[in-house]
Structure formats: structure tokens, C-alpha cells
Amino acid sequence: MPIYQIILVIAVVILVLSLLLNLLFSPITWIIIAILVIYSFIRRYLYEKQLKEYNERIEKEIAEKKAAYQSGQAYRNGSDDVIDVNERYLAFLFKEVLDIDVKLPIQRITWQEAMDRFGSDKPDMRFGMELHDVSDIVKDCGFGVFTGALENGGSVRGINAEGQGAMPRKKIDKLVEFAKGYGAKGLAYIAIHEDGSWKSSFSKFMTEEQMEALIKAMDGQAGDLLLFAADRNKIVWNVLGALRLELAKQMDLLDKNEYRFVWVTEFPLLEWSEEENRFTAMHHPFTMLMEEDLPLLDTDPGKVRAKAYDIVLNGNEIGGGSVRIHQDDIQERMFEALGFTKEAAHEQFGFLLDAFKYGVPPHAGLAYGLDRLVMLMAKQDSIRDVIAFPKVKDASCLMTESPSVVSEQQLEELGLETAKEETTEE
């Protein structure tokens, strides 16, 4: 009940008591009643004003969201309700705990855009140094590393470490070794001197015009260091994505006081496994696909996009979720794409497929890695700094002395038996 109504009730009670006690004509009674009535009307005015302002604010937010959807900025695929709720949750959490305002709606980019621009599906948006695809620039050059990668269906991409053109050769060599740890065979570079001249590891294989076109495509300026990777897209993304973060650390570009959220959406539904020689689910086999991609499930499974979404903060995935499949025919087609026969699918997941026959409502969700979120809010570098009882490097717990010896009785209850490790004598 609004407070102005409570005050009016009090005024009526006083009036009734005055009648009962024969104080109706007392000046004090009328003064009190008059004050209460006037105050209640003032409160009512303020209440209605606040209600109006609140409604106007909500209508404005709805209009802004609607405009975002219509302009293509929103992710209109059935997951918007989940994303909207979690955006408001994060905004409330950061305001309540850190007194930081999170601007809504949070930026959204597709998985493809994240990989092309940042080489990562959990991009750190606090700094630039984005990837440049220079495949078209170098496709006719004489550098075999570049042309060989393109002939094998890969790409040539680079990043611009602005102001690092004077980096010593030993430090560049360390970056090359760093890149090799992520699958690169090597790392090509162009160091642009302050006078505009350059030093490069591959300039002898290219004409001056090709070098100038390459530097222009990379937005290279005097004093910049341009680094290139050439291979299959997955390797190039991994290498340059990791190198981008390493350079950011070296250049002190990562501000722990800055919080940059981004939603990454439209992940690939499937990814090819070289080991199993088949497609596997990137998230899990129950993720719903984009309806318009349904025909591709039979013809080009690798291009099918999923209704999956991750919330990323400063280069860390703090939460992820998806819309789930709720139709038995689509679920069966999904299993077929994963290489399951109909019999094998029913043998392993029959309980789920049978449940679909009784009607499953559309459903979606999101789960957080709260320890990682707390780590970022506390400005720590490791989740071990915010976990109450963290494990040490060998995964043991010092507090509970776990793992430890299990009694024979416990093993018997679980139906387990141990075997001595066989050792070979030399």
C-alpha cells in the first residue's frame, strides 16, 4: 500500500476516535486531520510522479532494445530472454559490489567476427591490435610460406604492435618461439623504422610495391612492428590470438580497473575432429541450431551455426549457455550428423528421444564460472586466489589431505578393487 493511502487511513481513524470521544469540534483534532490530509496528497503527487518517471524509463529502454533488434545489433534467435536477464544481473552485481556502471546492452559479436578480429572466441576488448587478413595482398608474391599456406586452403594474417618497431632481434626471436608453442612453423615480421624504412624477414621474396601494399593493409606507421602467421585458419587464429595477448602484457595494455564485457554468439554447431575423422559437437549434442542453417546439416555441417552464446569479460569466459533442441526430428538429425546410427542414438540417448514424444517446451539457459568472475572482480590473476580451499599443482588438497588411502570396506561398498602397478625391472 502506498504511503499516502496509509496516511489517509490514519486520518480517518483519528476522525472516528474523535467522534467516539466527543472531540470532533476540538481545533487540535481538525489541525491534525488537515495536516495529515495535505501531507497524504503531497505524497500521492510524489508517488505518481515517480511512477510516471519509472514507466517512461522502462518504455525508453524497451524502445532502445527494439531499435537494436531492428538494426541487427541484437541476437534474434530465441536466446534474447536469457541474455537480457543476465545483462541486468551483471549490471546490478557490478554496481552493488564495485559501484561500477555496466553499459547496457552489452556488445555482441558473432564467433566468426571474434576469430577474424581477435583470433579468439573469448576476446579481450580492452585494447586493439586486431588481426588483419592480408591473404589477397600476398597471394601472388614470391614468398613460399605465404603462397603455400594459401594453396592449402589457409590464410595469411597479421597484427600491428604499434610503437614496437625498435624491438631487439633477440626479443623478436622469443616471440617466434612463443608462436611455435601454439602450432606456428615460424613468424614473419616487418619492423618499420622511424624514418619510414623497414627491416623484414621476407622482403627479399617480394617487390617493393608488394611490401608497401602489405604495410598499408596493416595500417603500418613509422615505429610499428608487423607480425604475420601463415597456415590453416585454426592455427593462424591460435597463434595470433595468443601473440596479441602476450604483446599486450609486454606493452602494459591490460588495465585491471577496466571491465569490458562482450557476448560471443553463433558458434559453429560442429567441428571436425582429425583424431576421430568425424564431426563432433563444439558444445554438446543437444544445442539447437539456427533454423536457416538446417538444410546445411546434411550438405555442409561445418557451416551450421548454433544458438550458443558466451559472456566474456576481459578475455575470460565467465559464462556460457545455449538454446536446447526440443524437437525429436531435429535431435535425430543432429545425432546423424555426429555419425550415430539410429540404433546407436536410441541405445545411448533413448531416454531423451522418448521424452520428446510427450512434448518438450523450448528452453535455454546459461551457467557461470563464479570463481573466475570473482577473480576478475577481485583483480586477481588466478582462480586459486579466490577459491576457499584450492588444490595445489598436483591436484591434491592440503587441508583434507586428499587424495588419500581408501579403506578396503569403502572399496567393497563401491564394488571396486585395486591392482598393484606393474613395474619392469631393468
Secondary-structure-based class equals alpha+beta
CA radius of gyration is 32 Å
Beta-strand percentage range: 5-15%
Percentage of helical residues?
40-55%
**What is the terminal separation in angstroms?**
86 Å
Strand order of the largest sheet: 1-7-10-11-12
Number of strands: 12
Largest sheet: 5 strands, mixed
Shape: extended
Write down the secondary-structure element order.
HHHEHEHHEHEEHEHEEEHEEHHEHH
Mean pLDDT: 87
Verbal overview:
- With 426 residues, the protein is α+β, with helices and mostly antiparallel strands.
- 43% of the residues lie in helices and 14% in strands.
- The chain is built from 14 helices and 12 strands.
- The chain has helices at residues 3-20, 27-70, 80-98, 111-118, 135-138, 144-151, 169-180, 208-217, 233-250, 296-299, 328-337, 342-356, 370-377, 408-414; strands spanning 108-110, 132-133, 155-161, 188-192, 198-200, 225-231, 261-265, 270-273, 278-281, 308-313, 316-323, 364-368.
- The strands form 3 sheets. The protein has a 5-stranded mixed beta sheet. Strands 2-3-6-4-5 form a 5-stranded antiparallel beta sheet.
- Helix 1 (3-20) runs antiparallel to helix 2 (27-70) and helix 11 (328-337) packs antiparallel against helix 12 (342-356).
